[in-house]
Amino acid sequence: MTISRGPKSGKRPVNERAVRNALGGNRGGGGAGGRNGAGALKGIREGEVVGHQAAKIAEDNIGYRLLARMGWSEGDKIGLEGGIEVPITAIMKKSKLGLGAGRGM
Hints:
- This protein has helices at residues 16-22, 62-69, and strands at 49-50, 90-91.
- It has a two-stranded antiparallel ribbon.
- Helices cover 14% and strands 4% of the residues.
């Protein structure tokens, strides 16, 4: 596939308002919108562990049922060689720096 510059390439600025409207309203700050609403990340700080207080999934959950069909039962590790015993920790990242980048770089 070849991409070439046409006569109108780069001539028109991006209409940010039209883009926001096409995406379903004002999404503000890079992904704060969506299913959880625009204020879903309010009050969560950079580096904070999230999701650690979530309840266990119910037996009628599709993920639970799929794991059970593959031979998993509650209390077993997930994975072939050793597996994981506890869920992976999710740490909040709200800055626009890349993963692993520090502010002093």
